[in-house]
C-alpha cells in the first residue's frame, strides 16, 4: 500500500470521526436547538424522507467487571430517521428516546454537514449546544467535587 | 388450571372507570405531571427502567402514574410496551471508565486516584423526617461548588488491584453474549446471561439473596471495591453507515465487589470479584447483583454448593417480578371448573372417611 492510499484512509477515518462527533452533539441537543439550527439554512431545497422518523429499541451492553466480556444490560428506546436533500447528501440520525421531530432535524443537519461548503455553517449553528453542554458539565463537576471526602483512619487502642 | 370464562363485560368496564377515578383521587388536588414524576421521583423511575429493562424516563414516569405508584405494575406496563417496538440493533458495550461520575466511593481504599465523591446520597443522613418538605414552596439551598481540574476520567479501583496481580482479571473470551429477550432462559447459564437476568431482576428478591450470602449462606466475605454512578455514552453500530453512532447519554450504577481469594498449586491466591451494572441510580440493586453474581460463580471458583443464592436455576427462574407477579396473581382469575373437581374429590374422600364400605365403592367408581 502506497503512502497516498494510507493518507486517503486516514482522511476517510478523520471524516467518519468528525461526523460521529457531530451526531453525538445532535443526540445531546433539544428539539428547539436542532430546529433553530435547521432554520438557519432556509430556504432549504426539497427534502425527501427516505425513512420517516421511526421509534425502536437498541440493546445496551456492559462488560463484566467493566472491561471483560460483553453482556446485555437492557434496552433503550431509539428514534431514527433518514432524509435526502435534493441535489445533496443523505442524512441519517439515530438518537435515544422517542423523539421523531428531533430525529428528523438531526438527519437534515447530518445531510447539510456532509456538504463541505456548508460544514462550517452547520458546526457554527451547533456551537451554542456545545457551549451549553460544556457549561452544564462544569457546574455538575463542581457540585460533585464539593462532595469529595477525606476519610481519616483513627488509631484504636489503649495508648 | 384456568379455564376460560365469558361474561362480566359491563362489570369489567365499570371497574376500569372506577379505577381511573380512584387513580385521580381528590380532584381538588392538582393532578401530578409526568415531568414531576420524572424530576422528583427519580429513583422510582430508575427502578422501573431497570426492572422494566427499558431506558426511557418519560415512559417509565407515565407507567408509574398509570400504575398509581405500584412499581411492579409499572414495570409490567413498560415490558408490555417494549414488545410493540422493532429492534434496531445491539449497542457497543458502554465504557464505565469514561463515566461522567456523579458519585464514586470505595470501601477498600481511602485514597484512590480521582478521590471519593459522595454525590447525591442518602448515606450519612440521619433518617429524620424533614417537615420542611411537607410544604410546597421550599427551594433547597444551592449546593456548594468546588473548583475542579480537567475532569479526567476516574480509573477503576479494580484496575489498581489488577496492576499488582492481586485480583482476578475480568473474563475476556470475546464471545457474543446470549440475549434473554431473544431466546428463553436455559441452563447452565453463562455469566453474561446471568448478569442480564440479574440486571432486570427484582430488587427486593436480589437484596434478600445478597443479604443471605452475608449471613453465611454462601459467604464470600465481600468488600465494596467501588461503586460509581453517572452518565455514560451509548453507541450503536449502524450497518448502513459502517460506523458506530453516538445515541446520547444514559445513567448507570456500577458495583465492583471484591471477594474472598482463590489460589491453587499453580497460581498464588488472589481476590475474586462480583459485578453489578444497572440502569439509573440504584446502589442497593447494583450491590445485590454483585453479591449474587459472585455467589453464582461457586462452581467456577471450586467452592461447595450450600446455599440458595448459589443455585442458578432457583435464582434466575425466580428473579423476574413480571413473571412472578403473573403467576402469583393469576390465582385471582376464575378457577371454578378446577376447584369444582377438587371439591368433588374432597366430598368423596370425606364420605369414605365416615362410611368406609360404601366409600370404597364410590372410590372405584371415581377411578
Biggest sheet strand line-up of chain B? 3-5-6-7
Rounded to the nearest angstrom, the radius of gyration of chain A is: 22 Å
Widest sheet: strand ordering of chain A: 1-2-3
Helix content of chain B: 25-40%
Tell me the distance between the termini of chain A: 74 Å
- Averaging pLDDT over every residue of chain A, what do you get? 92
Largest sheet of chain B: 4 strands, antiparallel
Q: What is the global morphology of chain B? A: globular
- Largest sheet composition of chain A: 3 strands, antiparallel
Taking all residues together, what is the mean pLDDT of chain B? 91
Return the structural class of chain A: alpha+beta
How many helical stretches of chain B?
13
The oligomerization state is heterodimer
**Contiguous runs where pLDDT drops below 50 for at least 5 residues of chain B:** none
Indicate the overall shape of chain A: elongated
Count of spatially separate domains of chain B: 3
Region (Disordered) (chain B): 132-155
Pfam families (chain B): PhnI (PF05861)
GO biological process, one term (chain B): organic phosphonate metabolic process
Protein name (chain B): Carbon-phosphorus lyase complex subunit PhnI
What can you see in these coordinates?
The complex is a heterodimer of chains A (159) and B (367). In chain A, 48% of the residues lie in helices and 26% in strands. Chain A has helices spanning 3-28, 31-39, 100-114, 119-125, 127-145; strands spanning 47-63, 70-85, 90-96, 148-149. In chain A, strand 1 and strand 2 form a beta hairpin. The longest helix of chain A has 26 residues, at 3-28. Helix content of chain B is 39%, strand content 17%. Chain B has 13 helices and 7 strands. In chain B, helix 7 packs antiparallel against helix 9 (283-295), helix 8 crosses helix 9 (283-295) and helix 12 (336-354) packs antiparallel against helix 13 (356-366). Chain B starts with 8 loop residues before the first helix and ends with a helix. Chain B has 3 domains: 9-82, no CATH class; 96-119 and 152-170 and 179-325, no CATH class; 336-366, no CATH class. In chain B, a hairpin with a 7-residue loop joins strand 6 (243-262) and strand 7. Chain B has 367 residues and is an alpha+beta fold. Chain B has a 4-stranded antiparallel β-sheet. The radius of gyration of chain B is 26 Å and the shape is globular. Strand 1 (47-63) of chain A pairs parallel with strand 2 (87-93) of chain B, so a sheet runs across the interface.
